[in-house]
């Protein structure tokens, strides 16, 4: 059994090593420009801060580790096309020849959707969310946010939205491979709603506003994914009729 898995493990290691090298190159390049990148990342916070408040650090090593986090985060975003490409190359041996031609559409669409999620988070969610959190106690306390904590919140939110926006892309290719149908997604809709809110609660700051700002677009993306699956790989009519008959029988019972 191990001998059967050995080629796959070797291939997986190869893809991980190449992805890690791309990430390292991106990290090294971005570390040289961490200051302007950090300035771009903190712009929404600076706009939300009331007059007289500043961004501070509370630990002597916090600025250095913040620079490392910023460079790693920017390097991750820059290396995303390579990571997506390596992921596709890993799964490609299990695909048919006519399915392997989707490598470029997959890499491009996955990269664009991740960037769209990150942009949505940066230009809409972060300004609204942090303005709400800062102004909530602004009349009682002076806001002095720590740069390390802000960068941690910021990167977590951006990655969460980037991953969330991949849902239509994943749905398209799973439907193209015949692994899911629109009926499959409809059947799991209630469970998906629960999972979406759990995911939003874990990935956002501990406030209801931020959770809903992640959960609501994700629910919309799930609905779009159902439509995509219906266009790419619709459920057979016979299967739909059987499901409707079962629902009617359960209601009559």
Helix percentage: over 70%
Order of helices and strands: HHHHHHHHHHHH
Low-pLDDT stretches:
none
Question: How much is the average pLDDT?
Answer: 84
The largest sheet, given as strand count, sense and whether it forms a barrel, is:
none
The percent range for strand residues is under 5%
Shape: globular
The number of distinct β-strands equals: 0
Structural Rg: 22 Å
> Number of helical runs?
12
The class by helix and strand makeup works out as mainly alpha
**Straight-line N-to-C gap:** 48 Å
Walk me through the topology:
Blueprint (H helix, E strand, L loop, with lengths): L1 H30 L2 H15 L13 H17 L1 H12 L5 H4 L2 H34 L10 H18 L2 H10 L5 H6 L1 H15 L4 H25 L4 H16 L1
Helix pairs in contact: 1-3, 1-4, 2-3, 2-6, 3-7, 4-6, 6-7, 8-11, 10-11
Could you explain the architecture of this structure?
80% of the residues lie in helices and 0% in strands. It contains twelve helices and no strands. The chain has helices at 2-31, 34-48, 62-78, 80-91, 97-100, 103-136, 147-164, 167-176, 182-187, 189-203, 208-232, 237-252. It is globular and about 60 Å long.
Question: Could you provide a short overview of the structure?
Answer:
By secondary structure, this protein is mainly alpha-helical. It contains twelve helices and no strands.
């Amino acid at each position: 059994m191990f001998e059967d898995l050995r080629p796959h493990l070797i291939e997986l290691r190869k893809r991980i090593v190449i992805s890690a090298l791309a990430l390292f190159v991106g990290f090294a390049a971005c570390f040289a420009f961490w200051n302007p990148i950090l300035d771009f990342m903190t712009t929404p916070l600076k706009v939300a801060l009331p007059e007289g408040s500043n961004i501070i650090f509370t630990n002597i090593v916090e600025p250095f580790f913040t620079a490392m986090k910023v460079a790693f985060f920017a390097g991750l975003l820059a290396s995303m096309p390579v990571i997506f490409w390596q992921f596709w190359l890993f799964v490609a041996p299990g695909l048919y020849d006519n399915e392997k031609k989707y490598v470029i559409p997959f890499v491009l669409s996955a990269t664009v959707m991740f960037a769209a999620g990150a942009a949505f988070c940066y230009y809409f969610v972060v300004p609204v969310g942090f303005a709400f959190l800062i102004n909530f106690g602004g009349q009682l306390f002076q806001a002095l946010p720590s740069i390390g904590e802000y960068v941690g919140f910021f990167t977590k939110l951006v990655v969460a939205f980037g991953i969330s926006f991949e849902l239509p892309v994943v749905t398209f290719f799973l439907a193209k491979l015949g692994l899911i149908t629109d009926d499959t997604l409809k059947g799991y809709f209630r469970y998906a709603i629960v999972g979406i809110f759990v995911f939003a609660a874990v990935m956002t700051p501990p406030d209801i506003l931020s959770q809903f700002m992640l959960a609501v677009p994700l629910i919309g993306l799930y609905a779009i994914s159902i439509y995509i699956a219906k266009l790419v790989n619709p459920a057979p009519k016979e299967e739909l009729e059987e499901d409707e008959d079962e629902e009617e029988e359960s209601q009559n019972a």
